[in-house]
Write a structure and sequence with these properties.
It is a single chain. This protein has 313 residues and is of the alpha/beta class. It has two domains: 203 residues, Rossmann fold, CATH 3.40.50; 98 residues, no CATH class. It has eleven helices and eight strands. Strands 1-2-4-3-5-6-7-8 form an eight-stranded mixed sheet, with helices on both faces. Helix 10 links the parallel strand 7 and strand 8. Helix 4 packs antiparallel against helix 6, helix 6 packs antiparallel against helix 7 and helix 6 packs across helix 8. It starts with 8 loop residues before the first strand and ends with a helix. 47% of the residues are buried.
Length: 313
């Protein structure tokens, strides 16, 4: 990855009476604008996310979505929907006086990138997506009800543990009741279990540091509450919306990077999107799962950002 860098500007941007977004810029202030969209929803950005981009050529823009990371209020579910996030992206673009930009997103970040690009194709020069998540009912059911747990039965038992057996027929609903409830002890236990399940299954080879990061209480609270809030509401989108509206990406070039053994977002989602998006290039990484930190995925993402910069400049 590119060397570590610090932002040349960081600020909080108010986008409503409720929410203030952490927003930063690094790299070349006169370079090609690229927007990084983090996962979750609720995951927040990390300093190493800047290192996917050539700092000499890119104006690198990171922000923490509503309720995530350093945005305030932390873990808030109020006024927090996909349409709010799309409006926030446009507010950031206008605030920074950017006409068009490259959009880079992984996991939920790919969901949001697609939703934004399909609504505002004239603003997007290119898309770089990792671990495509179409956020359909079948995709949520696979990871949070029946499917992925068969591959990780020991981890799945820990995910089930906070929920009484009589409620396990609908785990998203059972978790949401506790994550949005007033019982702080139950809320924190469910947040840790929900987030740890994702952290443990994100990589092909075990990564204890990643799992520990997902279990950290401050991170887990936002991740679990906001993810569950979105998933119980079908991500505030129509069923199959991202594939049905993919024709709007017709003039946008893009790269899709997806791990062959991605258990969180199985690779068929990337294949379906590629079929509906003629200008996309699909790279299936043969020895990787879901995480951007896995070597094969990192390498492919760097090739994609370098290639996109060369094409545009």
């Amino acid at each position: 990855m590119y060397p570590e860098i610090q932002p040349y500007k960081a600020e909080h941007l108010p986008v409503s009476g409720e929410h203030n977004l952490y927003l930063e810029q690094s790299g070349n202030s006169q370079g090609q604008a690229v927007l990084f969209l983090h996962g979750g929803p609720g995951g927040g950005c990390q300093p190493w996310n800047r290192q996917f981009f050539d700092p000499g050529g890119y104006r690198i823009i990171l922000f923490d979505q509503r309720g995530a990371g350093r945005s305030t209020p932390h873990a808030s579910l109020e006024e927090n929907t996909t349409q709010h996030l799309i409006a926030d992206i446009e507010a950031i673009r206008v605030h920074l006086k950017i006409e068009r930009w490259v959009v880079f997103g992984g996991s939920w970040g790919s969901t949001l990138a697609l939703a934004y690009a399909e609504q505002n194709p004239e603003r997007v020069l290119g898309l770089i997506l990792r671990g495509v998540f179409l956020c359909r009912d079948v995709d949520i059911h696979w990871f949070y009800q029946y499917g992925a747990g068969r591959l990780f039965p020991d981890y799945w038992e820990d995910f089930l543990a906070p929920i009484p057996e009589l409620e396990r027929y609908d785990l998203v609903t059972a978790y949401y009741k506790r994550l949005s409830g007033d019982d702080e002890v139950a809320r924190m236990a469910c947040a840790e279990a929900w987030s740890r399940w994702e952290g443990r299954t994100a990589t092909l080879k075990p990564d204890t540091r990643l799992a520990a990061h997902f279990s950290e209480p401050h991170f887990a609270t936002a991740m679990a509450r906001i993810e569950c809030h979105y998933f119980i509401n079908q991500a505030f989108m129509r069923s199959n919306q991202l594939l049905e509206d993919a024709y709007r990406l017709a003039e946008i070039p893009g790269v899709i990077v997806h791990g062959r053994y991605d258990v969180i977002c199985p690779v068929d989602q990337a294949c379906l999107l590629h079929q509906e998006w003629p200008k996309s290039e699909l790279k299936i990484i043969p020895d990787a799962g879901h995480a951007a930190s896995e070597p094969g995925i990192t390498k492919a993402l760097l090739q994609a950002t370098d290639g996109m910069l060369a094409e545009l400049t």
